[in-house]
Design a protein that fits this description.
The structure is a single chain. The chain has about 170 residues and is of the alpha+beta class. The protein has three helices and five strands; from the N terminus they run αβββββαα. The chain has a three-stranded antiparallel sheet with strand order 1-2-5, with helices on one face. β3 and β4 form a beta hairpin. The radius of gyration is 32 Å and the shape is flat. The model has no long low-confidence stretch (mean pLDDT about 80).
Length: about 170
């Protein structure tokens, strides 16, 4: 009898697919589902799957931040229970407060730097134009080399010479 039920359940899974259960909806209208842990007809255990059906976003248009971080943590199984609307709104408010405090700190720091520049306590950042790189082979060399060092827009005659071909016989 057990084999018959297992066969019927596997036929249902093949025809209809595993049963997906809606877990919640976020404030964007995205729906979140889970497929519970189940067994195949061969006795293999399939782990729980969690996924989302987006309202206005196609899969290739997904951007980071399009879904709330609480739901993303649930989808990636970093948390056991799905988040509630109240939790999401509370965390969103906390992020806004934190962002305003960070903006205030940046503004205070900018004002302190400006005051330090005016009073001469802090040196202004130096504006240096660097030509080339010290690790480059042609740094500080003004002789022609076999390596092209310029582009078509900045080519200067005499800055490149063709390589010597020792293998060619004339």
């Amino acid at each position: 009898m057990n084999r018959v039920w297992r066969l019927l359940r596997s036929l249902k899974l093949r025809v209809v697919g595993p049963e997906k259960l809606q877990v919640g909806v976020d404030h964007f209208g995205n729906k979140y589902y889970r497929i519970p842990k189940h067994e195949t007809w061969a006795g293999h255990t399939i782990q729980e799957r969690r996924f989302m059906e987006a309202v206005d976003i196609k899969e290739h248009e997904y951007e980071v931040g399009d879904i709330p971080t609480e739901w993303e943590a649930w989808i990636r199984k970093r948390r056991q229970d799905p988040p509630t609307i109240e939790e999401i709104l509370k965390n969103e408010k906390y992020r806004e407060v934190l962002k305003s405090k960070v903006d205030e700190c940046y503004e205070k720091d900018r004002l302190l730097q400006a005051k330090g520049y005016e009073e001469g306590l802090v040196a202004e950042p130096a504006q240096i134009k660097i030509k080339g790189h010290a690790a480059a082979q042609h740094y500080e060399k003004h002789e022609p080399s076999e390596d092209p060092v310029s582009t078509a827009n900045t080519f200067q005659p005499g800055s490149w010479k063709p390589p010597q071909d020792h293998e060619r016989k004339k």
